[in-house]
Automatic annotation (TrEMBL):
Species whose genome carries this gene: Halocatena marina
Transmembrane segments: none
Protein name in the entry: Anaerobic glycerol-3-phosphate dehydrogenase subunit C
Keywords: 4Fe-4S, Iron, Iron-sulfur, Metal-binding, Oxidoreductase, Repeat
Biased amino acid composition, Basic and acidic residues: 1-17
Record region (Disordered): 1-32
E.C. number: 1.1.5.3
One protein family per Pfam: CCG
InterPro entries named in the record: 4Fe4S_Fe-S-bd, 4Fe4S_Fe_S_CS, Cys_rich_dom, G3P_DH_GlpC_su, Helical_ferredxn
């Protein structure tokens, strides 16, 4: 059993922005707030753009926000302007939701989201650090920091954050919409449960995974994390749960690349050591797997970044690759509580080619009816739909998904993304499950 499995809850709760020593890779900006992305050479990607506008037509924000110029301007065109003349990054870059659908749409593999992340980081470097927008975005980007505090007294925190006065205060002072229900903290975090049970219940030299659970599964939906543990142990996997920080996805989306760099550096150092010991890295959130697989190697150059990216998988993807998951589910005698499921594929699942896997998997089960509720973005895109000025746009983007869900036979939703689940429940009132929860119910 790995020593990382003995990590105690209080060790995990250290702030991730502790002293930040220089990275093992090159440091392009000489300051405490340095991050690699600012000096990324994007010229090859910019030159590959031939202005077909496929990215613009795929962008859900451009479809509803007439003032947003779209991914093509935010990426290659802005890059060219910036380097041709003394031009500041356009403020519209902060309206990009980081859904990354433009990456998938581009026929010539222009690194659009990498350009957007870099441009946002540069724009945020020049923001007034005492402005409402900066403070609000920094809070949303660093949800895990606040969650570590709030989860210590979950009942009190839930009562305070659900209070109408608190919602009004957050909207007026910070610009965080009062229309949404703040996600409740679990009474016991996943890591507390994990430590109380004594870590992994399976020992194996051949089948080892390191679980990157992320903040939300730890603090808010530990039932998803527990389902992953039980399912993988049923297939004979030894599981390590290492110390970790946020994957950085909300930080990328808000241009907080210095914060993302610190979190990524910590994660790469911890996870790469486990990869060397024969572990593969498994995520239950498609945004987490996307960050480790794509955004880390695009923006950072730490030692071990490539190895971590190459050994990172989404949970269901990994089981389908390495186990006969379909066969085990087909042979199971267990009944699923919600046999009619309305499934939404997150944008970050689409970017990894995983948008069909849940449909293919559950359609093989007798007595289960699963319906695809369309290929639209859910609209929440992590923190985007929590901003007061973006809330109406997020709901307009999500309208197609809401209608598809309401027309579906089932009244239970399913998705791999926690914020998509938030939006699905918010727009329809349906209960939302993670595929791992359904698999656990069928197998165990």
């Amino acid at each position: 059993m790995s020593d990382t499995e003995d990590t105690h809850e209080h060790e995990y709760e250290h702030e991730f922005d502790q002293s930040d020593s220089s990275p093992t890779g090159p440091t392009p900006v000489e300051s405490a707030e340095a991050f690699d992305g600012l000096n990324a050479d994007l010229r090859p990607g910019a030159d590959n753009c031939y202005k077909c506008t496929s990215c613009d037509t795929s962008c859900p924000v451009a479809e509803v926000d007439d003032e947003f110029p779209g991914p093509k301007f935010q990426g290659p065109e802005q890059w060219r302007l910036k380097r041709k003349e003394d031009t500041d990054i356009d403020e519209s870059i902060m309206s990009c939701s980081n859904c990354m659908r433009c990456d998938d749409a581009c026929p010539s593999s222009v690194p659009l989201s990498q350009m957007h992340n870099t441009a946002r980081g540069e724009y945020v470097e020049g923001m007034d650090k005492f402005s409402r927008e900066y403070i609000r975005n920094r809070i949303l980007a660093n949800y895990g920091t606040l969650a570590r505090i709030g989860s210590r007294v979950p009942r009190l925190t839930n009562a305070i954050m659900g209070n109408r006065v608190t919602k009004w205060f957050n909207e007026r002072l910070l610009g965080i919409t009062s229309e949404r229900e703040f996600p409740e903290f679990a009474h016991q975090t996943f890591r507390k449960w994990w430590n109380d049970r004594g870590g992994s219940q399976v020992t194996s030299e051949q089948k080892r995974i390191a679980y990157f659970h992320g903040d939300y599964s730890n603090f808010n939906t530990p039932e998803v994390a527990k389902a992953l543990v039980r399912v993988f142990e049923s297939f004979g996997y030894e599981i390590a749960v290492p110390e970790q920080r946020c994957s950085g996805t909300p930080m990328f989306a808000n241009g907080m690349l210095a914060d993302a760099r610190r979190a990524a550096k910590f994660n790469v150092e911890t996870l790469s050591a486990l990869v060397e010991d024969g572990y593969d890295i498994i995520c239950s959130c498609t945004s987490c797997s996307m960050a480790l697989r794509q955004e880390y190697p695009e923006l950072f150059d730490f030692e071990g970044t490539g190895e971590v990216a190459a050994h990172t998988y989404e949970a269901v993807e990994y089981l389908r690759l390495h186990e006969d998951l379909e066969g085990e589910l087909h042979d199971s005698d267990s009944e699923i509580d919600h046999p009619a499921l309305a499934y939404h594929a997150p944008c970050h699942a689409r970017n990894q080619g995983l948008h069909r896997q849940a449909l293919e998997l559950f359609r093989t089960l007798d007595g289960v009816d699963i319906e695809d509720v369309g290929d639209s973005c859910s609209g929440i895109s992590g923190t985007y739909g929590w901003k007061s000025e973006k809330y109406d746009y997020s709901m307009e983007i999500g309208e197609e998904m809401f209608e598809e869900m309401k027309d579906a036979e089932g009244t239970t939703g399913m998705t791999e993304c926690p914020t998509c689940a938030m939006q699905m429940e918010h727009g329809t009132g349906y209960e939302i499950n993670h595929p791992l929860e359904v698999i656990e119910a069928a197998l165990t």
